[in-house]
């Protein structure tokens, strides 16, 4: 149980660190290391029982899985999606904008002609909703997403935060 808590905290702390939460990650790491020291001392004092070692290892594996699940539910940060459409007259940009997404569109030349390219910045907690809208309107769309490390300027930063703020 102790290792389960420790590894869950460790996974979340690592993800917070990767996303640049410079104040929260160190605070969480203090709790994490306290749990680790207590848990490790319990196991080291009882190495004669193989079930303690198995429980420690099982807690580690389950903790990693739960930590990933928690981080996925928190959906911290933003994603940048590039959507490439074969139909340059698609109404998808208008639909996305009416659903609160910021969309920058441009035309590009692909192997088979002109394509409509959409760049969309959105909070990660809106990622699945974005995919659902795109797949419903343009099932043949090519979608690439990535997590931007730094965002500055434009209307995106203020409006995107405000637009998708959870009540």
TrEMBL record:
The chain crosses the membrane at residues 24-44, 50-70. Residues 101-153 form the DUF2179 domain. It is found in: Cell membrane. It comes from the Bacteria. It comes from Secundilactobacillus odoratitofui DSM 19909 = JCM 15043. Its main location: membrane. InterPro entries: DUF2179 (IPR019264), DUF5698 (IPR044035), UPF0316 (IPR022930). Belongs to the UPF0316 family. Residues 11-68 form the DUF5698 domain. The keyword DNA repair does not apply. It is a multi-pass membrane protein. Pfam families: DUF2179, DUF5698. This is UPF0316 protein FD04_GL002046. The keyword Glycoprotein does not apply. Keywords: Cell membrane, Membrane, Transmembrane, Transmembrane helix. GO terms for cellular component: plasma membrane.
């Amino acid at each position: 149980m102790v290792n389960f808590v420790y590894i869950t905290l460790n996974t979340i702390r690592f993800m917070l660190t990767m996303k640049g939460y410079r104040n929260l990650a160190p605070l969480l790491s203090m709790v994490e290391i306290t749990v680790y020291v207590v848990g490790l001392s319990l196991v080291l004092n009882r190495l004669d029982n193989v079930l303690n070692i198995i429980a420690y290892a099982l807690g580690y594996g389950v903790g990693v899985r739960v930590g990933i699940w928690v981080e996925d539910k928190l959906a911290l940060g933003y994603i940048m999606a590039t959507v490439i459409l074969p139909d340059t007259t698609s109404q998808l940009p208008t639909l996305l904008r009416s659903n609160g997404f910021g969309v920058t569109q441009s035309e590009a030349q692909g192997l088979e002609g002109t394509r409509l390219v959409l760049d969309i910045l959105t909070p990660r907690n809106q990622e699945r909703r974005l995919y659902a809208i795109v797949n419903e309107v343009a099932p043949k769309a090519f979608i690439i997403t990535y997590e931007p490390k730094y965002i500055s300027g434009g209307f995106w930063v203020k409006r995107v935060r405000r637009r998708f703020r959870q009540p």
